[in-house]
Structure formats: structure tokens, C-alpha cells
């Protein structure tokens, strides 16, 4: 075997391992209560708001 074949085979092995991990964890195994879901949604909204303020501040400073 030449060097390129060895690299290709090891790369394909890594890709198959990653695909297997993604397949295993594609569906969450934890049940969340409605209050936890609501809290996570609020945190997402808060994060988007903070990022929006950050971009607005950057825009006003550059302008």
C-alpha cells in the first residue's frame, strides 16, 4: 500500500466513526418538562437579543 491509500482508509474510518456517533445521539434521550422547555426558549430569545444589541452597537460605532 502506498501512503495516500493509508491516509484515505484512516480518514474513511474516522468519517464512519463520526457518522455512528451522530446516528446514536440524533434523538434526545432526556424528557424535558414544560417549564424547562420554556426556560430554554427564554434563554435563546435572550441570547438573540444580546447578539442583536452587540451588532447594533458595532454598527453605530463603525458608522
**Poorly predicted runs:** none
Structural class: mainly alpha
Shape: flat
Mean pLDDT figure: 90
Distance between the termini: 59 Å
**Helix segment tally:** 2
Helix content: over 70%
Largest sheet: none
Overall description:
It is a single chain. It is built from 2 helices and no strands. The chain has a domain at 31-63. With 63 residues, the chain is an all-alpha fold. The model has no long low-confidence stretch (mean pLDDT 90). The longest helix has 29 residues, at 34-62. The radius of gyration is 22 Å and the shape is flat.
Structure, briefly:
The chain is mainly alpha-helical and 63 residues long. The chain is built from two helices and no strands. It has helices at residues 3-24, 34-62.
Give the topology, please:
Blueprint: H1 3-24, H2 34-62
Which structural traits does this protein have?
mainly alpha; flat; 63 residues; single chain
Amino acid at each position: 500500500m502506498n501512503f495516500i491509500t493509508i491516509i484515505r482508509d484512516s480518514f474513511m474510518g474516522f468519517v464512519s466513526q463520526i457518522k455512528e456517533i451522530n446516528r446514536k445521539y440524533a434523538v434526545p434521550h432526556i424528557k424535558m418538562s414544560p417549564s424547562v422547555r420554556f426556560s430554554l426558549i427564554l434563554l435563546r430569545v435572550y441570547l438573540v437579543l444580546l447578539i442583536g444589541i452587540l451588532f447594533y452597537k458595532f454598527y453605530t460605532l463603525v458608522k
